[in-house]
What does this fold into?
Amino acid sequence: MLALIALRNLARNRRRTLLSVLIVSVGTVAILLTTGFIRYSFDGLRDAVIHGGLGHLEVTAAPDKATGIAAPDRSSSPPILNDWQDARATIESRPDVLAAGAVIEFSGVATNGERSTSFVGLAVEPDRERRMGMTTKLRRGTDLPTDDSVSREDRVLLGVGLARALSAEPGDTIAVMTVTSDGSLNAVDMLVDGVFTTGFQELDGHILKTRVGTAQRLIGTDRVTSLIVSLASDDATIRAQKDLGRAFATRSEPISVVTWETRAPFYGQVRGLYSGIFAFLGVIVAVLVALSTSNTMIMSVLERVREFGTLLAVGTSRTQLARLLILEALWLALFGGITGSAVGMALVTLINFLKVEMPPPPSAVDPMVLALAVTPSDFLWISVFMTTILLVAAFPPILRVFRLHIVDALGHV
It folds into this structure.
């Protein structure tokens, strides 16, 4: 009965009620769009890191356990992981592992006979990269062949900036020189298959990519730097890390199993930055909605002082009046939440359909597509959040009701 009375009270002043519903709706839309943008950014960055080359886990020799850092810091050291085929067999025996690809990180000098420049090299197994869902962003040419028997020639992909520095195009041949595992120099002629981008301008100016077999012949070793592990599900990362750690605990050569988040600390930094921005915007929205709706409800109470005095005089308790005001706030939250969710979902659909491109982030190459990712749980927690704000906004008018004196209320003009 009180809920029905509260609904009728809201209908008595439709303009004020409409304004309150509009405020709640705008707040709901603002939080929903912000949540969608941040979730899309987090998911996109996570997928770019994992499928861009880091994988879910890295298995390498234990000396790197203390650092857990990525390729460029180890490119000047020879590969140190022994018996990596046996380790890979152990890894790929797990049902949640898609594949484990060998990686060699090295550095040296590349030349086309006229121009020379330093590089950071990454040797991979193309067939396993494809099984792991890792893609190479080619700008020109073709990707590395998956089978060494396709050609006896050693193949290489050049970063966009490195190709420009060497004036190299697909089909050209360059010489790649590096220090071997025993400290001597070695050079190999490589056929340029394609030009690619990592997405970052600075790295594109120094990186080249070849096959593990080619890098092993160049460096003179049968070892690799690490094994990159790709899992069927992101949620299995920590569990797989612990399981593999126990599986390798008995090996004579200590093994380190490192997660992608450890190897990409910038992901946590970006996540912390965006979370702080989101919390700041959420506080602003909460304050604006609370103040606006509280002011509207206080105005409603002031217009109904004699009505409340009459109700108190005939035996209605102050608690019942407080419950009435709370129910009015809940009705506003319900109507505003439904309206805001509907408008927000329509805007999310429209924005995703338009595929608006934004300028590339600092140091990045490709433009960023403006897209939003929302889940059903977002509507639930945003509704709970807005309802809580409305309940908080109901406290000032409830406090005024508790301070009413019946005689003064009945004589109020």
Summary: Residues 2-49+267-410 form one domain.
